[in-house]
Fold these 3 entries.
Entry 1:
Amino acid sequence: MREAHPIERVVGMEYYVSDADGVGGHLRASPEDFRVTELESFDTAPVDADTGGYPHLVFRAQLRDWDTNDFASALSDKLGISRERVSWAGTKDKRAVTRQLFSVKGVDPDDLPELDGADIDVVGRAGRPILFGDLAGNAFEIVVRDADAPENAASVVTDLRRFAGGEARESRRDERASEPSSGEGTEPREPDGDALPDDETTVAVPNYFGRQRFGSRRPVTHEVGLAIVREAWKDAVLAYVGNPHEREPEATQAAREYVDETEDWQGALERLPRALGYERSMCHTLVDNGGETAADFREAVETLPTNLQTLFVNAAQSYVFNRILSERLERGLPFDRPVEGDVVCFRDSEAPADLPLPDTDRIQRVTGKRLRTVERHCERGRAFVTAPLVGTETELADGEPGEIEREILDDVGLEPNDFALPGEFDSSGTRRAVQVRTELSVERDGDDLTFEFSLPKGSYATVLLREFRKNDPAK
C-alpha cells in the first residue's frame, strides 16, 4: 500500500493497494483508446408498440468524444423538447467511444436527429424511462499509451490478485475442509459446488468512486454536496460558481476569483465564459432574485438540471464512502472478507452469472457466531462486505467497521438525519460493496498496454487503471 496522488487524496482516495511501481503512460490519446460498452439489463417492447402504454422510445447510441450530459442536451435541443425527457442508465466519460442506452419520452424514431459523432440505433419502446442503474455493468477495452515502465504491469497484477484474497482464500479453504456449516442465517443456501473465483486471473481493487464523480478537471461536486447537506446554500453556490482550480484556464480562474472576492453576480456574468452555462444560470437567478437570503441561493442551485442536483448529494456521499475505505485500508482490515461488526449484502439472484452484482436490499450484520459462514459466502461471490452511502435510513456497522464510519462522519460534521433535504437533494442512503473484482487481461505491444475487463454498474475503470499507472490522473 502506498500514498495516492495528491489530487486523488482530495476526493478521499488516499492509497493505492499495490506497492509495485506504476507503468505511467497516458490514457485517451484518442477516443478510440477508451472503449466502453454497456452490459444491458433493460427490457423493451417492439418499436411499433402502443405509444399510450409505451411512451418512451429506447435507442442505443455509439458516441465518440461526447459527454453524456452534453449529448442529452444537444439531443433535446435538436428535438425541441425539455432535457428532462431524455434519460440514460449511466454517465460515461467524454473522451471515449461509448455504446449505451437512452430513452426519450414522446418522440418517434423518425424524429431522432443526426448528430456528429453519434450513431443511433432504435431498440424499441418502454413504459418508463431508463434510469440510473438500469444496466448490469460495463465492458472496457482501454489502451495506455507510451508507458514509462510497461514491464511493471506484471507486478501490479500480482499485488491486485493478492488484494482479491486468492492466497488467503486458499489457506482458509484448507483450514475449513472438514468444518461443517453452521446452517444459521436467513440468506438462501446455494450448492457448495459453486465455482470459486479463478485466482490466476481474478484481481480486485477498493471500490472507490473515481475522480470523474467529483469533476475530472475541478473536483468540487462533493464540496457543493456537503454544503447542501448542511443547508448552507450560499456556500454551495460559491463552491460551484467560485472556488477556482489551478487546472482550469486562466480566464476561468480569474472569473471564479472575482466571484469569491466580490459576490457580484452581475459582474460574474460579464466574466464567466459562455461555456460555463450552469454557473451562468445560477448567476442569472441571483441577479433576478436579489441574492440576499438562503432561499435565494437555494433557488439558484435548483435552476440546475435535476440529475445534477442529485449528483451533488451523491458526490458528498461518495466522498464519505471513499474516506471510509481509505481508513479501512490504513487500519489493515480486509476487503475480500468480513470482520465482526461488518454489514454484508448478498448477491443479486437475477444478475448475470459472469458478473456478480450486490443486492443492497439483502443485508446482514456479521456477528462472531456467523463470521466463518459469511466468510465462505464471500469466498464464493455470494456475499460482499459493504460500507454506507450515508442517508436518512442508514444504520451504521458495529465493531471496528462501525467505529470507522462514525469517525469519518464526525470528521466531516454530518449524521444520517442531515440527508432529510428538500426536493431532489433528499437521500435515504444505501450500502455499497467495498471491493470490486474482475477477470483482467493485459496485453503489451511495445510501450503500449491494452486492458480488457468488465465491471458491475457503479464501479469505475479508472479506479482499476490508477493502480497500474500511479501518476497524475489528468494525463
Entry 2:
Amino acid sequence: MERTATLTSDYFSWKAEVALPTGLGGHHRLWHAYFDDRTPRHLLAGFVTALVDPAPVSRGHYDVPHSHLVRQVERGAQGDQLAAAHEARLKASRSAARQARRSAAPTTRPPAGRASEAATAAARSR
C-alpha cells in the first residue's frame, strides 16, 4: 500500500499492489487497485478491512493462481457426498408429491350451487 498526498491541497491517492518476484530481479504484478480523494471513505475502509482480514478466502479447487504458494484444504461435503445428498432430497421430494396425490381423494358430489340445485329439482319433477 502506498499513499500519495500533496502539501498544498487535500488531494490524496492510494495504490495497493500485489506482485511476485520473477526470479530475474523483477516482479510480476498479480493485481492492483487505485483510490483517490473522490473514493467514498466507506469503500476505502471496506477494502482495507478485507485486505487485512486473516480469515482464509474460499475458492474453488484449482482456482488459485500460483497454487504452489498456498495450501488448499477441502471443507464440507465433497463429490460422492454431495451427489448422495442431492439424490436423497430428490427421493424425499418425489415421496412427498406421491403422498400429496394420495391424500387428495377425488369427490363424487357435484359442486353446490344454483345450477346443480336446478338440475336436481328438474330430475325430481320427472
Entry 3:
Amino acid sequence: MAEGILLSTDRCIIRKALLSDARFIIQLLNQNSFIDNIGDKNVFDIPSANEYIQKSFLTPYQSGLTAPYIVCLHTGEPIGVAGFYQRPYLKAPDLGYAFIDRFTGQGFALESCRSLMDFAKTALLLPAVNAITDLSNAGSQKLLIKLGFTGVGFLQVDPNNKPVKLFTHDLAD
C-alpha cells in the first residue's frame, strides 16, 4: 500500500492525517452536526487546525496504530475521520468517527468502521473496543449496533456536560 494508507475498502481509503488536511479539518469540525454530537473544538483557522492535527492525529501515530485516520474516497477527496481514541476514562480504545454531512447516510461510516474493526481484531489484536455517543445521536447508535456493539450503560465524562451512552464490542470471539 502507498505510504500513509492504512486500509482500503470498496469505496474508501483510510490513511494517516497530514498537516495539509487542515482545510478539511476546519470544514469537518465546524459543521453543526459535529459540534452538536461531539463538541466545539475551537478550530477556525489553519494554525489551530495544524495544532489539532498534531495533537489528535500525529502524536498518537508516534505511539502506535490506535489512532484516528482520515477517510477518503478513492479519488483522494477527504470525507471524514474514523479510528481509535484511547480515552483516559476507558480501558479499551474508543471507536470514533465523523463525516462531512453530504457524505452521511450513504454507508461510508459503516464501510470504514467495519474495516477498522476488522483491523482492530486481526492486526492490533485488541480484545475489545468501546464507543460513546451523545444520547440523542440515534444514527451513531444504530451504526454501532450494526457493527456488533452492545449498549452497556451511561457514562458521565465531564461533570459540566450531560452523560453519554457507552457501547462495547468484545473482539476476543
